[in-house]
Prior knowledge:
mainly alpha, Glycosyltransferase, 52% helix, globular
Amino acid sequence: MMLDPRNKVGQVFNLSATPGTINPRSYFTHPADKLKTGPTLWLTALLLVLLFSPTLHAENETVFDKFKDKMEPSIEKGLGYLAKVQLKNGSFPERFGTSTGIPALAGMAFLSKGHLPTEGPYAENINRCIDFILDNQKSDGVFQAGSGGSGPMYAHNIATLFLSEVSGMVDPTRQKKIDEALPKALQLILRAQKVKKSDQNQGGWRYHPGSRDSDTSCSGWALMALRSAKLNGAAVPDKAIADAVKYLYRHHNQKTGTFGYTNTESHSTTLTGMGLLCLELCGEHGKPSTLKAGDYVLKTYRSLPGKQFEFYGNYYNAQAMFQLGGKYWDQYATWMYENYLSKQKEDGSWYSREAGGVYGTSVMVLAFTVPYRQLPIYQRDETVEEE
């Protein structure tokens, strides 16, 4: 199991750490590996026969075990594609590739498999992502470049999350730059949340820092950025997190389990995973609303292919269902790997019709690598059942 490759969580903004990882596959230790020598040889032999019988092995096999032989080369092929198409300045071709959001997603994809910015085959690629974002921070704190869609906040939130996650893994020069940039980026998110809005929209975020409305998609990225930074020692007020959680609950249907875009139902197939993940990461694990949302995802995930924002929905569903664990992760992950491994293109990419191959590949890798647990923000409750 991995966990935070930083030396000490809580000292992120003045930390210059030497990163290190633990083999993520150690989390999936088979019971036979823990077998202790018994008092007699015959008892030991009997236990070995039982533990290694095909029936019992199949019952104890995790989703990771079932798919890792196909999944690992697929992930590396996807990362190879991202590395190959990245431009020298750290941005990417295709739609939104020159915004700060796409390099941030690609950077997190590299990190999610355990690759680091200080060593290894993708160190240069990760550092290019970091540098591009840092080079495009404006005086008000926003990370803005190229085409970011309807406004800068969406890409800004993702870029802030990425820098918070990679902080503490980088060389001293980049760490100093991150220490200077992140507080300004976080303050912008906090200011945008405080803009006076209607009761329904209060606590959330929209496309612009001064927006007077909110949507759950933009708000989900903002909340994760704040949560990541807070976990790593930034002075993010508890009230900011609490207000964002209240905002999400106002867009949640407790009877059906859905989360909507600007209400409780719109785009629920692709957004319920987002609401579920954010609640899980903010201390709501195991609450009736999260379980209800998980049940909704189990009922509807097979309708995801072909829908608008399909890859986005899969990314959030995978992260959210892993947080719940048990049947939720087992059923969803089995379907996800079976469905999407075969859809990878020859060049290693997955293509999103809304945002292209770089975006599609980045979010698919982030979904596939959930069991590796390399990104600190996505750590889960250690009591969650693994199947």
